[in-house]
Amino acid sequence: MAAEHLRVHLEHIAQVMPSDGVVLLALDGENAWEAFPDSGEAFLDEFYTRLRQTKGLKSTTLGGYLGTRAGRPVGRLHSGSWIGGNFDIWIGDPEENQGWCWIKRTRDFLTQAKEGGQVTKEVLAAAWEDLYAAQGSDWFWWYGPDFQTDSDTIFDALFRGRLQNVYRRLGVTPPAGLSVPICATGTQLGTPPVREIEPKLSGTGSYLEWSGAGKYEAWRDQGAMAQGDRRVRMVRYGVGESDFHFRLDGKEPLGEEVILDFHQPSPVRIRIGGEKDGKVSLEKSKDGVVYEAEDCSAEVAGGGGLGLRIPFSSLGWRGDGVEVSFLVRVIRGGVEVERYPDRGLIEFRGPTRALDMKNWYI
C-alpha cells in the first residue's frame, strides 16, 4: 500500500536524522495526483491516519517548523527539480532568458519605487502581487522549444500583461518592449520601406511622394471584434537623406495626443498634440521607464491626417542600417484608446546607403 510505504520510508529516515530534523514533502501542484483514481483523496486520508499513530513522526508545515527554530546558513541549495534535477526547462533558451530579463528589470523598477517612499503601501502591495504572479514557473514552461501549445501566444500576453500592470499601478507607461511578443511568431508587422523618400510635410501627401515608404494597415488590426470608433486606418513611415518621415491616415480628430514610442535603437518618445497645441515634444530614456525632455526640431502638419518630419540627429540615430522599432498610441480623455500595432512593434531597418541601390526602379 502506498500510504504504508511512505510512512515506513519516513520512519527509516527519522532513525538517522537529528531529533529536530525535518523532511520536506514538496509536490508540484496537481501533477502528483493525476495517477490516482480519486485524485489522491483516499491515499491522503490513509497516510495521515497512519502518521498520527506513529511515534517519532509529526506533521507540520514548513513555516511552523522554521518559526520555532533559529535559522542557520546553507552552503548549497540543490535545484530540487523533478525534471533532470536542473532548471533547463525554465531558463537558458532565448525566449526564457528574455522573460527573466523583463522580470529583473521590472523588479528593479519596483524596488526603486519602494525605496523612494512616494508610493502608498496599498499600491505597492498590488504591484508586488502582479510581479509575484509573473515570477511563477509555469509561464516559462511554455517559453522555448521544450513544450508548445496552441495557447502559447495567450500565455505570453498574460505574462507580459502582469509586468505591464506593475508600471501602470505606479502611474508609469510600461516600456514599449513589453508590447513585443516573446514567443517567436515569425510574423512581419507592416511592410518595411524599400527606398528613401522626401515627401512634403502634410497630413495627407500624394501617392508618389510616399511610394516606397513602409506602411502598416491599422484598420486590419482589430482582432475578431471590430471597433467602429478606431480612427487610424494607415501608418506610413520612411527615411530620407537626414529625416524620419511619419504619417497617420484616419478620421479627424485622431485624439488629444498621438505618441510615437521607439523601442530601438534606443527609447525615444515623441508626443504630438495634447497640451502642446499640435506641437511636438521629444523625450529620451536610458531604461525605457523614466523619460526626460530634450530639444527637438521636428515639424508636424495636420489636415486629413497627421504628418511628422524629424531629423535623425534628434532621434539619436547614428550609423548605417540601424534597427528601428516603434508603436503608435492615441490618447483621448487622458487615456490610451488606440495602439498600433495592438500587439508587437513596427520594425524596419533605418537609414542605409544601400537601400536605394537594392530597390532602385525606373
Shape: elongated
Spatial separation of the terminal alpha carbons? 84 Å
The percentage helix is 25-40%
Number of helices: 9
What is the element string, with H for helices and E for strands?
Answer: HHHHHHHEEEEEEEEEHEEEH
Mean pLDDT: 84
Residue share in β-strands: 15-25%
**Per CATH, what is the topology of the largest domain?**
Immunoglobulin-like
Number of strands: 12
The assigned CATH architecture of the largest domain is Sandwich
Main beta-sheet strand count, sense and barrel state:
7 strands, antiparallel
Global structural class: alpha+beta
List low-pLDDT spans.
none
Tell me about this structure.
The protein has 362 residues and is an alpha+beta fold. It has helices spanning 2-16, 41-52, 62-66, 94-116, 121-134, 138-142, 152-169, 312-315, 354-358; strands at 214-217, 232-239, 243-250, 257-264, 268-273, 280-285, 291-294, 299-302, 305-311, 323-332, 335-340, 346-349. The protein contains nine helices and twelve strands. Strand 4 and strand 5 (268-273) form a beta hairpin. Helix 5 (121-134) packs antiparallel against helix 7. The N and C termini lie far apart (84 Å). The mean pLDDT is 84. InterPro entries: GH57_Enzymes (IPR052046), Glyco_hydro/deAcase_b/a-brl (IPR011330), Glyco_hydro_38_N_sf (IPR027291).
Task: Detail the topology: elements first, then pairings.
Elements: H1 2-16, H2 41-52, H3 62-66, H4 94-116, H5 121-134, H6 138-142, H7 152-169, E1 214-217, E2 232-239, E3 243-250, E4 257-264, E5 268-273, E6 280-285, E7 291-294, E8 299-302, E9 305-311, H8 312-315, E10 323-332, E11 335-340, E12 346-349, H9 354-358
Antiparallel strand pairs: 1-2, 2-3, 3-9, 4-5, 4-10, 5-6, 6-7, 8-9, 10-11, 10-12
Helix pairs in contact: 1-2, 4-5, 4-7, 5-7
GO biological process, one term: carbohydrate metabolic process
InterPro entries: GH57_Enzymes (IPR052046), Glyco_hydro/deAcase_b/a-brl (IPR011330), Glyco_hydro_38_N_sf (IPR027291)
